[in-house]
Write a structure and sequence with these properties.
Bound molecules: nickel (II) ion
Structural class: alpha/beta
Helix content: 40-55%
Strand content: 15-25%
Oligomer: single chain
CATH architecture: Alpha-Beta Barrel
CATH topology: TIM Barrel
Number of helices: 10
Number of domains: 1
Length: 258
């Protein structure tokens, strides 16, 4: 029973062999998948997948890369999608100063706007953060996510992680935890409390070792669970159970609906 809490199954790279990808996930013990949106189209697709498949859940939101193109019509439609039964979070949203595909002040506006929308919708948020640690922390303190928050594929320092944990947030680990140069992430995984971590793939990106050159898919989340189990000194099923329970604690609606 493993929950891949972040997989872009709506990506066109799965169109050709979608059924096989799902079959391999089921065969590897993945019982739930959360498909986040990154723009309006992908949010619609995520909701459509969640409607069709009982084990898929959705989040809706505009990624910082696409923040520039979002107008009132986009926000209105996201608000309406967020009311869908199987939408359990708002995301992925945040700041990306590494690629800077939208101007930084536009990213910040879209981020803050979506924290407010998530609060109004009663949903937790899923955060994408790349090289924007100080700004994201400042904005989160000014505009608190009222229904919780997870940093997906958390890539910051243990120092920042402690601040996030103090705010009550969750940290999610993905493929990079299995990489040899993952010193900082290793330190975070060692320190994270048992009731605050989740696991994910971020499929089709960030494939874990030893499959790193291939397209990622939910079945590979097993490698992340194994690595986390080693680091925590726990059995693999125990880590899977904790990660699933932590996911349920944050994405409560999924829990209530089975
Ligand atoms: Ni993602």
């Amino acid at each position: 029973m493993i929950w891949d809490t972040h997989a872009h199954l709506d990506d066109e790279r799965y169109r050709r062999d979608f059924a096989e990808v799902l079959a391999r996930a089921k065969g590897s013990g993945i019982s739930r998948i959360l498909n986040p949106g990154y723009d309006l189209e992908s949010s619609r697709r995520a909701v459509a997948l969640a409607r069709e498949y009982p084990f898929i859940w959705a989040a809706v939101g505009i990624h910082p890369h696409d923040a520039g193109g979002a107008g009132q019509a986009t926000w209105d439609e996201l608000v309406s999608l967020a009311q869908e039964e199987k939408v359990v979070a708002w995301g992925e949203i945040g700041l990306d100063y590494y690629r800077d595909l939208s101007p930084r002040f536009v990213q910040q506006q879209a981020f803050v706007n979506q924290i407010e929308l998530a609060n109004a919708a009663g949903l937790p948020i899923i955060i994408h953060n790349r090289d924007a640690h100080q700004d994201i922390l400042r904005l989160l303190k000014q505009h608190r996510p009222e229904h919780g928050c997870v940093f997906h594929v958390y890539s910051g320092s243990w120092e920042m992680a402690k601040e996030l944990l103090n705010l009550g947030f969750y940290l999610s680990f993905g493929g990079p935890l299995t990489y040899k140069n993952a010193r900082q992430t290793l330190e975070v995984a060692q320190g994270v409390p048992m009731d605050r971590f989740m696991v994910e793939t971020d499929s089709p990106y960030l494939t874990p070792e030893p499959y790193r050159s291939q397209r990622n898919e939910p079945a590979r989340v097993v490698e992340v669970v194994k690595r986390l189990a080693e680091i925590k000194g726990l059995e693999v099923p125990e880590v899977a159970r904790l990660a699933l329970e932590n996911g349920e604690a944050l994405f409560g609606k999924a829990c209530a609906a089975g």
